[in-house]
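On clarity, I found the account of how folds are encoded harder to follow than it need be. Since the whole study asks how a given chain folds, the encoding of that fold should be made plain. The format is easy to grasp once an entry is in front of the reader. For illustration, here is how one protein appears when written out as sequence plus structure tokens.
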Amino acid sequence: MNKDFIEIYGAREHNLKNIDVKIPRNELVVITGLSGSGKSSLAFDTIYAEGQRRYIETFSSYARQFLGGLERPDVDKIDGLSPVIAIEQKTTNKNPRSTVGTITEIYDFLRLLFARASTAYSIETNEKMVAYTDDQIIELIRTQYEGKKIAILSPIVRSRKGHYREIFVTYSKKGFLQMRIDGELQDIAPGMMLDRYKTHDIELLVDKVILNDKITDQRLRSSIDQAMHQGNGITMILDYETNETRFFSRSLMCAATGVSYALPEPNTFSFNSPKGACPTCTGLGELKVVNNDKLFQDKNKSLFDNLEELFETLKSSSRIEKQLETIFVKYSVDVKTPFKKLPQELIDDVMNGLKETLNVDLKFASVKKTYKIDFEGLNEFLSEIMEDKNNPSSTTIGKKFGKKIVCPTCEGKRLNKESLFFRIDNKNIGEVAELDLKSLQKWIEDAPISMTSNQQIIAHEILKEIYTRLSFLLDVGLDYLSLNRSSKTLSGGEAQRIRLATQIGSQLVNVLYILDEPSIGLHQRDNVRLIDSLKKLRDIGNSVLVVEHDRDMILEADYVIDVGPKAGKNGGQIVWEGVPEMMLKSDTLTSKYLNNQLAIEIPTERRKGNGNVLKLTGASGNNLKNVNLTIPLGELVVVSGVSGSGKSTLINETLYRILNQHFFRAEKDPMPYKKLEGLEHLDKVIEVDQSPIGRTPRSNPATYTGIFSDIRSLFTNLPEAKIRGYKPGRFSFNVKGGRCETCQGGGLRVIEMNFLPDIHVECETCNGKRFNRETLEIRFKGKSISDVLEMTVNEAVEFFEAIPKIYRYVKMLQDVGLGYITLGQQSTTLSGGEAQRVKLATELAKKQTGKTIYILDEPTTGLHFEDVNVLMKVINKIIEFGNTVIIIEHNLDVIKLADYVIDIGPDGGNKGGKIVAEGTPEEIANNPKSVTGKFLKAELK
């Protein structure tokens, strides 16, 4: 075994052709090749899977039964394997409580910093809070009240209504004689009680003294101890001469008003702890409320017609309908009156409820009875349903009639009022968490200036740790993020780079890191910093294996492995390996693109579109600065810009959601905007992303495109099938009848091995064909239904040439470069790029109206130069039908092919959100304001 290499022998996972490969240790190694060639099969499904399996095998058999076994990858042997950590493109935790701050652990250090080195301010006066020791309290009292008559009091009730009879009884039993009630000292009398409808201040008299030399410190300490005990840590001193009071506390306290805080702890600043969380939103920073626009969509219809969908969703709506009818009777308004003509008072009562009690006639089991009902209003009624997770209608009501708003109590900061009155350098922790990471680093540098020398000593190590972690995040191009950014809103690329920064910060050595396209979502400007970060990881003593297509990353690697020569069954081989300099001289498809023998050709002229435009005005979601966007229709429009500039907010979260709601009544609301003009030129919107085409192994290209239904109908209409009376369900592997019941149509059987991983073996009954013998006897042109599913797309094109409906779809799959996949290939085994092309082919095969707008977000993710070339040819076909395609992209090979480019910037986060340049690629390249233009200029030469 060679210690300088990780050696893989006989790798056969998925489409790998029994390959042997040596990966040099402690180097930056890039695996590249066509989409579907076997790169991920080698890196993740073989090397990482084996590393995970070996790790889990070190656990006891007892522990392994809870972890679940990991299947042994199909490989003969792997030698020299280090502990493996995979950093994939998967998005992070979908929990709404998970943020960039929590997953990087920077927020944990920030909580510690505020708990130990912040200054508290009063929520009443905004003055600095004070906390005293007992000795300080005695010294202050002697200094301020020397020679004066004072009363030592305990605050019991502060500005609350009630008769408080029980308080007087309790303290009388304890031996206390007097209380100060609303500023007046009174004896406690039997049966004493106050006006329950007025607010009161009540203090307990603990001691009265004239402060002179005869009053010892011991007497004062004893009285103050008693006062603190009765007053929950607070005591008051009353000056008889001026009738003024002052508060003292061992905890943090406002000397003017007596408001006190407990001494802060880290969980005081945690939105996941009851101690720190905002009581209104429970630490989520947002609330779900009723969306009136969704409840009353058509103002020309009556209120009841508008609420018809709501009544159908509610299992029992007769009570609420009767209550609403009674409100109409109260205002003498016909229930059929159009909503827009209803008096505002009636609408207010419907939404917010009535103060008076209603008499409602209800009929149960033929018995009519009048009930007195308090109507709480639709707002409260629906809010209660949305909040009640045990109510089966909760999710449906929330999706159909709810919307999320920023919590009005904490203004999205997630914490309670007290926690937000602790400050460092004039900022509370909520404000610090809102800063973009670059600004946060500057704040960390400046924070010690505002601290006392004591606080500086305490904060030094904490600030150093936060600064280091922030540096790693900035190095991977995430300077535009903020700590309060919810992790569920992060893209796969952002989530991956956060994990990468965390791993660099962990300073582990002798580890094999495997990364899946870390350059995704990253502008060329930030690419150099990312490559430097990977080199840092290598230089501290780790091996870094990267699956990547980025030109700069390949050329900066220490070693390159090129997998190919084609994709699917025609791939799975190592076509070249070695240093990048030598690769440029080789004859592989990758090297031809790297040394410019092959290139994605720039069009000789740009399309002018159909003359119509889609005009979005006043987009202001997230960081967008009141953007006005014009999309020329019938063209390829590329939206570019640095990471975090606002591209996804503008296109995915604003424009797409407006169009989706308009054409399909989608539930997700768009980000704020003023208006959208030009909808009459479109008939639908389609978003084509790289998400899987199905969630289960039973989904495949044939089922997704819909041709499997046609294939089953074809087999059903064969003479033999008709004689036997077979219906289309007979030829489905998902229902009983035609499928093999031993494996239930899966083709494989799972054998449980107790403490060893489960083994998947070919079903011995159907030999992996999924169907029973009788079904397989029905043949078309000599092929059974199972044989058809095993066909590649290329084979299917010839086989179904005479059947137009099926042929159209398989031909389109072939045209988008997927001729190598099989019709029955499990959707879970398709790469993101392959899944996206299946979707594009499905759309292309449908009848075109020429009025469709397609939206693609970074479609070149996971695609080789050649794949990008094929993809762009497909996209051009879509536009030739008269459709419009909008692509969000950093890849210069795509940007240079655009008819129209919209560049957003100038930077990320709060420094972005503006359109800095728009026009043809040539115009962008010559615009000095565009960061993208600087890189595009070199591509257009």
Remarks:
- The first strand starts at residue 5 and ends at 11.
